[in-house]
Every structure is written in C-alpha cells, then in structure tokens.
Amino acid sequence: MATTTIQTTPPALVPGQPPRARKGRSLATNRGGFWFVLPFFVVYAVFLLWPVVYGLGMSFFDTSLARPESDFVGLANYRELLGDPLVWRTLGHTLLFTVMSTIPLVLVALLMALLVQTGVRGQWLWRFSFFAPFLMPVATVVLIWQWLFQYDFGFINATLGQLGLEPVGWLTTEEMAIASVVILTVWWTVGFNFLLYLSALQAIPESLYEAAALDGAGGWRRLVSITLPLLSRTTGLVIVLQVLASLKVFDQIYILFGGGGGPDGAAAPLLQYVYDTGFVSYRLGYASAISYMFFALIIVFSLGQLWLSNRRGTSQKGGAA
Amino acid sequence: MSTIAPQAPAPRVARKEATDRRSSAQRSPLGVRVGVVTALAVVALLWLAPLLWALDTSLKLESETTAVPPQWIPESGFTLEAYRSVLASDDLITWFVNSTVISVAVTLLTVLVSALAAYGFSRCEFRGRGVLLALTVAGIMVPPQILIVPLYRQMIAMGLVDTYWGVILPQLVAPAMVFILKKFFDGIPRELEEAARVDGAGSFRIFWQIVLPLSRSILAAVAIFVFIGAWNNFLWPFIVTSNPDLMTLPVGLVTVQSTFGVRYAQVMAAAILAGLPLIIVFMLFQRQIIRGVATTGLGGQ
C-alpha cells in the first residue's frame, strides 16, 4: 500500500539538505496533519487574520474609543488622510529616517564584519561590543542615550566641550532630532546586520583567496574583486530587511521624546501619528485608515524588491548560460 | 522568499575556517594588522562607551553624576546606593517577574505551536494545506504595528486588557518561525520516521520522539530569537497594560520613569538592571546566539 524507495547512497543526516521530491504517499506522510496545524492556525486566525480584516473594515467607519456605536463613512477616512498635512509630515519623517539610518546601518555593519573576519585576536570582545546593544530593551537604550544626549551634563556635549566645541542641542533642536534618533538606532541595531554579514563572509571558501593570492592579488585587490562581489546578494538582503525595519520606526522615537515626537514634533514618525490618532484622540477608524496606507506602502516595497531581485536573478542566469 | 540561511553550518567547519583566516591574517604585513586592530579598537570603544558611561553613572552618588567636566572616577568613590534605592521599591522586581513570566510563556508556546504547524506542513497531506501555507507566508509580511488598533478593540471585547494573557496571546503568532522550521523539517530524511511507523508509532509520537530531538539546534535558535523579541517587546505590552503591577520591564521603566525624576544614577541603575539578563545570557551562549540570529534572521525572508 505504501512505497518506500531504496536509495543507492545512504542519506546523510545533515539538516538543511535540499528536500527530496517524493511522489506518491510514503509511510512518513502522516495523516492527521490538520491537527498539527490547528493550534497555530487558531492563534493565527484570531490574532493576525481577524485583526487585519477587522482593521480594514474599521477604516470605513468612524469608530471611536470614546463611544460604542459607529457609522459607515465609506472612503471618508481615506479622503481625509490625503488632505491631512500631519500624515504627510510624519510620513516624510519616516522616509527620511529610513534613508538616513539604512545607509550607515549597512556600511558600518559591513566594515565591522570585514574587520572582524580578518581573524585578529579578541574575536569574543569584538563580537560582544558590536552585538550586545542589540540585546537591550528599547527602554534601556533610550534611557542611556537620553543621558548621553543631555544638554548641560551629557557625556557627548561634555566631550565636545573638552575639545573646544560648542554644545549641540541633540534632543532640543529640530535640525538634530532625527539625526539623534539615527545615531541611537545605528548604535542599537547595527550588530544584527553585522552578524548577517559575518556569517556570509564565513561562507566564502578560503580556496578562492588562496587562488587569488597565487595570482599575485594583494589584500585590497582580493577585497574588491572577490569579497565584495560575493557579498552583493547579502547586501541586497540586508538593505531590504533594514528598510522594512526602519519604515516601522516608532518605539525609540516615542520614548526618546516622551511621546511628543521631538521639538515641535520634528521627528514624529507615521506610526506615532497612528498611535496618537487612535489612542490619544480615540479616532480608531481614522487611525486604521492611516495604518492601511502604511501597510500598502510596505507591500509595494516588498513586492517591488521581489520583482527586482527576480529580474536580476533571471538575467544573471541568462548571462551565465 | 527562496533564501533560507545556510542552515546551522557544522560548528566544526566554521571553527576550522576561522583558524584558516587567522593564519592568513598572520601572513599579511604587520602594518595592515596594526591598522585592523586599531580600527577595531576604535569602533569597539565607540560602541562600548555608552554602556560603560551608563554603568559608571549608576555607581556614583546622585550629587556627583552631573559633575562638569565629567569624571570617570568620582571624588567620593563608587557606591551601590542607586541600585539599593531602585531595588527598594517593589516596582522593578514586579516588572522583572512579569517580564520573565511573559517572555518564558511566549517562548515556550510559540515554539510548540510553530513546531507542530511546521511539522504538519512539512509531512502531512490534508485538505486546505496549500491555502494555509500561503496564508502563513503572507502573514510574514504583515507589520505587527498595523494591528494594534483592531487588536486593542478585540482585547476589550475579550476582556483581556490588563491581563497576562492579553500580553502573551497576540505574540504567539510567528509565521516566519513556522516557515523556518518547515524548511528545516523538509531537510530531515524521512527514513527514520518510516522505520518508526513500521514499528507502529503514531504521528505525534514520531514528531515528539524523533523529529524534535533531531531539531534541537534550530529549535534553540528559534527559541532564542523569540525570547529576545518577547523580552524587549515594547509597543504591544505598552498598549494593552495600564496597571503598573502587570507591566513588563521596558514598559514599566518608560511609564513610571518620571518617579525617578532627574536622578540619573537611579535611572541608569534601573536601565542596566533591565538590560542585564540578556547580556548575561549572551556572555554564556555567544556562539549559539550568533548562529541562531544569523539563521533565523535571514530565514525570515
């Protein structure tokens, strides 16, 4: 009734080997699969699928936290957000933060990984220094940086003073607000990208470098001609992950400026506007509509990068053939 | 979507490569090596300085934290006064317990639920499998932040606002982890399971006694990743709890921070206590955590 295939080579117990295509039903194809998936699907349906649908529905109502009943308003919420200057202003902050943070978060991570991968002594210390901040709760990170950024007694301004420079209003001037958030964020999360790069570097076979060295390629040449080209896929991935993460910025800005979004709201991101609209002004329906505009942005970016990487993938294959 | 991280490279190979690199670095000219070490030291110092300064501040008398110019070694020496006063109020300990209970519960339940589902997707045929799998993958794209408004409404309706379950349940949905685990299970040869089935073992017993033990490394990686996320999660616990007795550490620190006023030594002591547990865990399990983060971090795509 069931087929077991006899293989000529014994299967290695290596996890991660590509799945073998199986035709037909084997003994290990279990019945009762539905029961395995059921618990996950229940939490998925209740806490992800339903809120997604419910939130979309809510965006067509004037739902409020302040009163129980709500009326259908059609596209009014969406029409309102198109003309709402605060939507565009906070979206601008989010996009600016995304650009300003992604660039250093990729370049610094790459630099760190290249330096550590040279194999000099102190591997444990380097990895610890670069990655430890990533493990801190956002509250800890922000409290530390609020203290460092403090205008009168903060460590950074004090150091600048000792160098004979003027103190900077890190958290108190509109020009510096987003830059300060970028500095904090790079310090906090660069370790994650650093680890992604490090594991990619470790996957490059040493033989490539040896061959290049035999051909007389120096260290710089090997970096430019071997390492960086082989890292381009990883770089693409790191950029995509980083952009998606940066677009969702909220926590650190909210805490850093005590919910105020910085001097005159100069750093308030779009998600903070969603939060304020929903939980401070109680306009859940309108907050949902803004959330869905943001969701659409994320989807467009995700699909766009997928389309781009697919196109690049096929053209590369075409070139190799 | 097709990329899954180089799954759990055998540690032996990685270590061997590292030593190879070391020897090749030794072959590079002295000047280059000095340059690399200097650059590393500068960057590491930049990254450690904020932590060291926070630690330093937390060990000072309140009156000496605002000395100008700043001093690494305060005139009246170091003191644990700030830690004593922070721990004297019950708040921090309550939040610590809350964070621990919630993070452990989220981690255990998420890993269990996700591993079961991943096994079901990997090994079982059932009606609707394709649809459910597609939904799971699509779920990876949904940013949790857009769910806060409808989820909060839902929590009110379910009476879960200001309860442990209200914080825990929405965090159990981890489609990316299901996807990573499914990929891993796909790679486990089926022969062992077939042998067990011939011996009469049921699906669940095969899963529990054969598949799970074979997957310890990936389960650890997923658990670590989920735990870090749960311990550090801010937005959802912040929204769903308003009772200080039920807050997690990150939320409590932020909301009740005003009680510290501008007592910087105490603020830093509290911040460090909140950050310490994961740092200690990291010091003990650096290798596993680094591997786990690299695996799950990329697998999410």
From TrEMBL, chain A:
TM region(s), chain numbering: 32-53, 95-116, 128-148, 176-198, 289-308
Gene Ontology CC annotations of this record: plasma membrane
Keyword Membrane annotated: yes
Annotated signal peptide: none
Chief localisation class: membrane
Domain of life per record: Bacteria
Compositionally biased tracts (Polar residues): 1-10
CDD domains documented for this protein: TM_PBP2 (cd06261)
Ranges for region Disordered: 1-25
Name of the featured protein: Multiple sugar transport system permease protein
Organism for this UniProt entry: Kineococcus xinjiangensis
UniProtKB/TrEMBL annotation, chain B:
GO process annotations (BP): transmembrane transport
CDD domains to which the protein is assigned, alphabetical: TM_PBP2
Segments traversing the membrane: 30-53, 92-119, 131-152, 164-185, 206-231, 264-285
Basic and acidic residues bias spans: 14-23
Membrane topology value: Multi-pass membrane protein
Any coiled-coil regions, as ranges: none
One Pfam family linked to the record: BPD_transp_1
Region Disordered: start-end pairs: 1-24
Swiss-Prot/TrEMBL keywords: Cell membrane, Membrane, Sugar transport, Transmembrane, Transmembrane helix, Transport
Subcellular compartments: Cell membrane
Domain ABC transmembrane type-1: 96-285
Gene Ontology CC annotations of this record: plasma membrane
UniProt family annotation: Belongs to the binding-protein-dependent transport system permease family.
Stated name of the protein: Multiple sugar transport system permease protein
